[in-house]
Design goal:
By secondary structure, the chain is α/β, with parallel strands linked by helices. It has one domain: Rossmann fold. The protein is 48% helix and 14% strand. The protein contains eight helices and seven strands, in the order βαβαααβαβαββαβα. The protein has a five-stranded parallel beta sheet, sandwiched between helices. β5 and β6 form a beta hairpin. The protein is globular. It binds adenosine monophosphate (AMP). The site of adenosine monophosphate has 17 residues, from α2 and α3.
Length: 224
């Protein structure tokens, strides 16, 4: 399975891509996670990406495309793309690269959320710097405030999850990434998924779309 999950920051792409990866045994390729890893490791790419990320701006296309096409080549069982492509140019280059590899995308899903929900979700997001577990101060708090349930590490807020940067990221999304939805809609079916609701309900709708691709039987709660 080769799928793309589109959506604004905070739409739930990370959460749902993780579930998709587990359910169908495919790689979860998150451009944001890969960039954060590169930064943590202090690589050349990480250093180049740093300033853009902290400002809520997009990292230049050439850097991203090289990074993601490499990741795709290393995912033989299939993948779900999270946060990529984020510009029409990235989508075009991805299409060309896939044609050259004689493959293509099987399905594109677009998670639709309102801006108010995005800001609330992102500014309340906290994560564990050690294991990557993600929490929300209101909707999914850890058992002990500000501490990871799994390993006791103090939780942190991503520097680009503050309200000021979130507003910037949303503005960047509308200007540069929403046209990617139209790019795909002009070429194929894009499945709109209402994603304001709770994650289990949204996941069940996503699985209904993807199950036939994986040859899974229909199930109401998405637990085939
Ligand atoms: P994310 O975790 O997907 O919200 O990404 C965090 C940040 O990484 C974004 O605000 C961008 O600065 C950068 N980034 C992630 N994916 C891309 C992409 N496809 N193109 C350009 N920049 C990206």
């Amino acid at each position: 399975m080769r799928a793309v999950l589109l959506g604004a920051p905070g739409a739930g792409k990370g959460t749902h891509c993780k579930r998709i990866a587990e359910r169908y045994g495919v790689a979860h390729l998150s451009s944001g996670d890969i960039l954060r890893r590169e930064r943590a490791e202090g690589t050349e790419l990480g250093k180049k990406a740093q300033g853009y990320m902290d400002a809520g701006a997009l990292v230049p296309d050439d850097l991203i495309v090289e990074m993601m096409t490499k990741a795709i080549q290393q995912a033989p069982t299939g993948y779900v793309l999270d946060g990529f492509p984020r510009t029409v140019n990235q989508a075009e280059v991805l299409d060309k690269a896939l044609v050259a590899q004689k493959t293509g995308i099987d399905m594109v899903l677009d998670l639709r959320v309102s801006d108010g929900v995005v800001v609330e979700r992102i500014t309340g997001r906290r994560s564990c710097p050690k294991c990557g577990c993600v929490y929300h101060v209101k909707n999914m708090p850890p058992k002990v405030a500000d501490v990871c349930d799994r390993d006791g590490t103090p939780l942190v807020q991503r520097p680009d999850d503050t309200e000021k940067v979130v507003r910037n990221r949303l503005e960047t999304y509308y200007r540069q990434t929403e046209p990617v939805v139209d790019y795909y809609k002009a070429r194929r079916t894009v499945h709109d998924i209402e994603a304001d609701g709770d994650p289990d309900t949204v996941a069940a709708v996503i699985f209904q779309k993807l199950d036939p691709l994986a040859g899974k039987k229909k199930s109401r709660r998405g637990k085939a």
